[in-house]
């Protein structure tokens, strides 16, 4: 056994030959205390053979230890000064610990602050004395272990100098929190092999200076032409422009075909002009206040998106800068959604061809919760995009002139990224060569490992939060330093001149050439393609210019409907289905055969099947969508034998479109923003987000406010996203009743979105189909039911699906005699069934009940058509379950009055309300209170 162990040891180069003395010392220390040796060695020793049932450090006479003792005995017979050897062995271990300390904590000593204001953190781990080493040991040679020095042994002074150059100069690496050894070793090699300072060619460095000149030149030009005007300039962070240029060019070399970029205000105009190729003359028009869109409200210039194509070593690349409001980080998950849609379109499952780049501010990165949510989704099945390159433009002062102690509780603004073990590269924004290096490593890491990576571009903000702000009032020390501090371009130009790369005249010529191009209105972005390859674009042309229409032919031929219904109910014999799910599918087969009324789950699922059959991909995500929060859907069947999942809708036909269905992680804001981004990039798809309960969308209100409700009018950005929000008063309390219908209706204007409250399975079938079959692309908000999912009266027939369409108003089906009707009750949603039951129980044939299934755009003509035959009506009542100050009443009553005024007696002024009294909470928390309120509002609808 001893011989086998020694062969095992000697097969590894780092424990052979000259290293054996060092390894023995490490092993002896390990036997005494495993925690005293570096992690890598502890793991190595743990894996060595040992007596069965014993831990290695518990075995005083193990064969391995015996062998080391024997080696030591033999050496003592041939060598002298064993005590000296022991001291050297101990010091060798300490040197390895010192190397590890630099890897862990060198970033805290690094020179990453251009202003030199960063308070140095005492790092005792980096002192020789901390490791029982001294200056007397500097000339002693030690093994370098895993440190990429290029030598197996080197004097301690050379090792320390190399460590200092690698980890404590212009780059501060945080990589040791990464668990994966391959990733960690790869990163160590990339930085240590070149001491974090590779040698770049003269041409590369000239190009970097040219991009720095462009970044500074645009800011200087705008500052002189529009002094004091808001532009959120990039001054102090100019290195961001060569960084982006390198990402794009290097990404193109990897075969990336599309890049989607998200960023907030600072530097956005510079990126638009110098990287994406927006014509400077267009930007000047915006500064001059000229209207640049034909319809809608428009938005300020530093919120606008843009797209273009640039040429790279790997061919043409399409760049898309996402539109972004002042909610800063909310654009991050939108970008991820847009990227995932593009990857799905290209069948790019690894994320090779489409790259997300998210650019952050330091304060927002640390402070906004959606950052955490976006990181959390990065490796999940529903939302992963193959890794994102994150860039933090770190002004070190936040969005106002706040103190770092007020901005976060962590050492760095980037510490949040450690939650997903993303490597973090802090880099001094004044060292353009270092910026270029970390940019290359970051992209290479993303392409190699398909995981997120963070570049912390530590810079400063030469002006205030905006150009009208005077920051020295609150940050006198910082801004006194900034006033005297030369720009990154100036520093880099001086360096290149000193090193003989360029002359002073060359530098001046760069400045003048850029200024001349800018003033002439020429494009100033490098490699801009003037006649782009349009196949790289998302083609929205078929969906443009369509006016609102509620009609669409959504019926499906009966034979095709039956065929698809049968197919979606097929489950292979190898799948052992849970007992209750067996019953659901048995019932669906009966529904398909016409032996049972169709319920909600069957009709909804059949809508997806028909859309897939017609070539439309379907994507459905949310918390519990596979089963459905209320167990109505069961689109995903779980094998009881092995836990595997089977999705019948993914097996409808060979070559069918994608049917994507995933339970989301417990997020609303990031997930809804992701689905918005996806839907704006996939016009042919049905994209659905379902809330677990409708009121949970509260956690994503900003997405509705900034994107879903207003994206078209601000940015001319179309979106066909569907939101399914379970809504209905079943006595489940304030947080599980209302999807806050009133909020959506309050935001409705200019036909910006659809708000619907379907009450039958046929209605949801046709509504979902209408959303895709029409070329019109508007967000759809569905107040979907809970109790109606299994309500005995909420059923439909196959004929309803085959021959019908979505009806915005459902007429009364009660076989009433029109001339006897004296009152019309208008309602929406589940309350209809309560009203219909009360009417039947009380024999009230003088009241008609009409359902308004689409509350916006309000169907005035359809409502008038449904009500006009009741010629003896004397009053009209709107009945809702929601309190008076909520629901549809305040936002929709003027529409109802307008229709009532069209009747012969002009009844608009007599419109009455029946519902719960005004309330600060959406619903009662006690079942007894709920029941009494529900009884009262139903009676009021008839007797008010």
Task: Walk me through what this model shows.
E1 component of the 2-oxoglutarate dehydrogenase (OGDH) complex which catalyzes the decarboxylation of 2-oxoglutarate, the first step in the conversion of 2-oxoglutarate to succinyl-CoA and CO(2). Keywords: Glycolysis, Oxidoreductase, Thiamine pyrophosphate. Its cofactor is thiamine diphosphate. InterPro entries: 2-oxogl_dehyd_N, 2oxoglutarate_DH_E1, DH_E1, KGD_C_sf, ODO-1/KGD_C, THDP-binding, Transketolase-like_Pyr-bd. The structure is a single chain. With 944 residues, the protein is an alpha/beta fold. It has four domains: 2-109 and 138-180, no CATH class; 202-522, Thiamin diphosphate (ThDP)-binding fold, Pyr/PP domains (Rossmann fold, 3-Layer(aba) Sandwich), CATH 3.40.50; 558-728 and 738-803, Rossmann fold, CATH 3.40.50; 809-943, 3-Layer(aba) Sandwich (Rossmann fold), CATH 3.40.50.11610. 40% of the residues lie in helices and 12% in strands. The protein has 32 helices and 24 strands. The strands form five sheets. Strands 3-9-10-8-7-4-6-5 form an eight-stranded mixed sheet. It has a seven-stranded mixed sheet with strand order 14-11-15-16-18-17-22, sandwiched between helices. A five-stranded mixed sheet has the order 19-21-20-23-24, with helices on both faces. Strand 20 (823-827), helix 29 (831-842) and strand 21 (847-852) form a beta-alpha-beta unit. Mean pLDDT is 90; it is low at 1-21, 51-65 and 69-82.
């Amino acid at each position: 056994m001893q011989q086998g162990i020694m062969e095992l040891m000697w097969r590894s180069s780092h424990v052979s030959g000259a290293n054996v003395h060092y390894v023995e010392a490490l092993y002896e220390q390990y036997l005494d205390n495993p925690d005293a040796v570096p992690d890598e060695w502890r793991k190595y020793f743990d894996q060595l053979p040992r007596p069965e049932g014993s831990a290695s450090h518990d075995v005083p006479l193990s064969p391995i230890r015996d062998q080391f003792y024997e080696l030591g005995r033999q050496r003592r017979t041939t060598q002298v000064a064993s005590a000296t050897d022991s001291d050297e062995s101990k010091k060798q271990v300490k040197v390895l610990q010192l190397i590890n300390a630099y890897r862990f904590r060198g970033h805290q000593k690094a020179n990453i602050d251009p202003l030199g204001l960063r308070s140095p953190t005492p790092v005792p781990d980096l002192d020789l004395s901390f490791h029982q080493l001294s200056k007397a040991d500097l000339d002693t040679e030690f093994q370098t272990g895993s440190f990429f020095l290029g030598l197996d042994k080197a004097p301690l002074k050379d090792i320390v100098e190399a460590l200092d150059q690698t980890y404590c100069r212009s780059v501060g690496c945080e990589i040791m929190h990464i668990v994966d050894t391959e990733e960690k070793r790869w990163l160590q090699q990339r930085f240590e092999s070149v001491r974090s300072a590779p040698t770049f060619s003269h041409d590369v460095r000239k190009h970097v200076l040219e991009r720095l000149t462009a970044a500074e030149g645009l800011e200087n030009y705008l500052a002189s032409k529009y002094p004091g005007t808001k532009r959120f300039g990039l001054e102090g962070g100019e290195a961001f422009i060569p960084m982006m240029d390198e990402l794009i060019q290097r990404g193109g070399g990897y075969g990336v075909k599309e890049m989607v970029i998200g960023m907030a205000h600072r530097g956005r105009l510079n990126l638009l002009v110098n990287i994406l190729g927006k014509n400077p003359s267009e930007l000047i028009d915006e500064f001059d206040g000229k209207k640049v869109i034909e319809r809608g409200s428009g938005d300020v210039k530093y919120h606008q998106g843009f797209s273009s194509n640039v040429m790279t070593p790997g061919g043409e690349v399409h760049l898309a800068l996402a539109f972004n409001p002042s909610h800063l980080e909310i654009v991050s998950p939108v970008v991820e959604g847009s990227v995932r849609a593009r990857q799905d379109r290209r069948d790019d499952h690894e994320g090779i061809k489409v790259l997300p780049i998210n650019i952050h501010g330091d304060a927002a990165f640390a402070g906004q919760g959606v950052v955490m949510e976006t990181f959390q989704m990065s490796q999940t099945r529903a939302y992963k995009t193959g890794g994102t390159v994150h860039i933090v433009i770190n002004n070190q002062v936040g969005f106002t002139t706040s103190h770092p102690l007020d901005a976060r509780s962590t050492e760095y603004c980037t510490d949040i990224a450690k939650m997903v073990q993303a490597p973090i590269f802090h880099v001094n924004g004044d060292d353009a060569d270092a910026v270029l290096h970390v940019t290359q490593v970051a992209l290479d890491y993303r392409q190699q490992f398909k995981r997120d990576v963070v570049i912390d571009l530590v810079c400063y903000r030469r002006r205030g939060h905006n150009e009208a702000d005077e920051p020295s009032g609150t940050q006198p020390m910082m801004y006194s330093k900034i006033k005297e501090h030369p720009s990154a371009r100036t520093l880099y130009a001086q360096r290149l001149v000193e090193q003989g790369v360029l002359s002073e005249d060359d530098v001046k010529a760069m400045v003048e050439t850029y200024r001349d191009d800018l003033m002439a209105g020429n494009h100033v972005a490098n490699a801009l393609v003037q006649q782009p390859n349009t196949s790289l674009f998302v083609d929205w042309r078929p969906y443009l210019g369509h006016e609102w229409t509620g009609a669409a032919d959504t019926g499906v031929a009966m034979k095709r409907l039956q065929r698809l219904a049968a197919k979606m109910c097929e489950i292979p014999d190898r799948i052992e289905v849970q007992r209750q799910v067996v019953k659901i599918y048995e019932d669906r087969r009966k529904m398909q055969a016409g032996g049972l009324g169709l319920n909600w789950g069957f009709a909804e699922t059949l809508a997806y099947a028909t859309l897939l059959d017609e070539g439309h991909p379907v994507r459905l995500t949310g918390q519990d969508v596979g089963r459905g929060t209320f167990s109505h859907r069961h689109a995903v069947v779980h094998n009881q034998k092995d836990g595997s999942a089977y999705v019948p809708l993914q097996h409808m036909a060979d070559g069918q479109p994608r049917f994507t269905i995933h339970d989301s992680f417990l997020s609303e804001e990031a997930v809804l923003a992701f689905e918005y981004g996806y839907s704006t990039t996939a016009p042919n798809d049905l994209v659905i987000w379902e809330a677990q309960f409708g009121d949970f969308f509260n956690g994503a209100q900003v997405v509705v406010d900034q994107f879903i409700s207003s994206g078209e009018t601000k940015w001319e950005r179309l979106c066909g996203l569907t939101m399914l929000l379970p809504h209905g008063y079943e006595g489940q309390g304030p947080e599980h009743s209302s999807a806050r219908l009133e909020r959506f209706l309050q935001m409705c204007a200019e036909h910006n979105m659809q708000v619907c409250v379907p009450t039958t399975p046929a209605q949801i079938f046709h509504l979902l189909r209408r959303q895709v079959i029409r070329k019109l692309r508007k967000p759809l908000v569905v107040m979907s039911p809970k109790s109606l999912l299994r309500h005995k009266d909420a059923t439909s027939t196959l004929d309803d699906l085959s021959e019908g369409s979505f009806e915005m108003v459902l007429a009364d089906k009660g076989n009433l005699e029109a001339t006897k009707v004296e009152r019309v009750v208008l309602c929406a949603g589940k309350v209809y069934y309560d009203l219909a039951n009360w009417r039947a129980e009380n024999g009230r044939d003088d009241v008609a009940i009409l359902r308004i299934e689409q509350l916006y755009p309000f169907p005035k003509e359809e409502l008038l058509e449904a009500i006009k035959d009741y010629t003896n009506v004397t009053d009209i009542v709107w009945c809702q379950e929601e309190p008076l100050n909520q629901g549809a009443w305040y936002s929709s009553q003027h529409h109802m009055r307008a229709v009532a005024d069209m009747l012969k007696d002009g009844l608009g002024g007599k419109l009455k309300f029946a519902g719960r009294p005004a309330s600060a909470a959406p619903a009662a928390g006690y079942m007894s209170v709920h029941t009494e309120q529900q009884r009262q509002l139903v009676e009021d609808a008839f007797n008010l």
